[in-house]
Design brief:
two-stranded antiparallel ribbon; about 260 residues; single chain; about 15% strand; 5 helices; five-stranded mixed β-sheet; about 25% helix; alpha+beta
Amino acid sequence: MDLDALGTHCALASCNERDFLPIQCDCLQSFCRFHISQDSHNCKASRNLTVTPQSSSTGRPRCTLPGCNKPLLTSGPGGASNEQTSAAGCPACGLSFCVYHRHQQSHTCSGLSRQVNGMNCASTRSPPILLKGMFKNSTNRTKSAQLQKVNAMKMRLRSIPADPKDNSSLIPVDQRIHVHVYYEVDGSSHPPKEGIFWFQKSVATGRALDLLANRFDIPSSKASSLTLYRTDDSSELQSHLPLSAHVIDTSSLTLRHSSST
C-alpha cells in the first residue's frame, strides 16, 4: 500500500505534517488536529462568519459540547468535504463533537454513564448456579497458589546453611536450594526431628547426607546407613547425583536409616 496516497498534509506551512485523519476547516483547507482551531492557523473564514454554538449556516457544524465552538470531526474519504462526508458521532450517545471532545471521557458521555451503571447492576446480580462452582474453584486455586508462595518465602527466610562453611552473604539466593528435612529417628516412639536448610545447588546428594548427619548430631557409626527420600513420593535420592537433580527449591525430604525401611 502506498502511504503517500493516504491522508493529507497540514495546510499550515510551518507544520506540513501528514495526518491520516485530517480535518477540513471552514476556509476549505485541511489541517492536523493541532492546527484545526481557527486561531491556530489564522483562519480567514472566521472573520467573515457569524457562528452559533451548534452550527453555522455557511460553514461546518460545530462541536455540541457547551462552550466549545470548534468544527465537528467529520468522516469522509481523504478528509475532503463532499456528499459522502458526515459528522463522526459518538457511538454511545449519538452526538457529534470536535476532535478534542470526540472521546467519551472528554464530553461526559451520557452513554458511558449508562454503560457503567449497567456493569454495576450486572456485577450485583448473583451468578448462575453452574458458574458459582467455577468461581469457587478458581478462588480456591488462587488462594492455594498464594499460600504456597508465602510458605516458600517463609522457608527461605528460616533456612540455615547445611554447611557451616557456606556464607549467606557470598552465595546468591538463586544459587541455593532450600529444603525442609524430616529425620526419622530409630524407634517408633521417637517423633521425627526436623530442620530447614539450604545447600548450594552444585552439592552432591552424598555430601548433603554427610552435612545433614552433622546437623542432626547423628553418630558416625549410624551415618553410613542414612538415605534421603522425597517426602511427597518416597523416591530414594541417588548419592552420586547433585541434590538439585532430584528436588526443586522449597521441597521436603525425609532422612532415614536404610535398615528401617
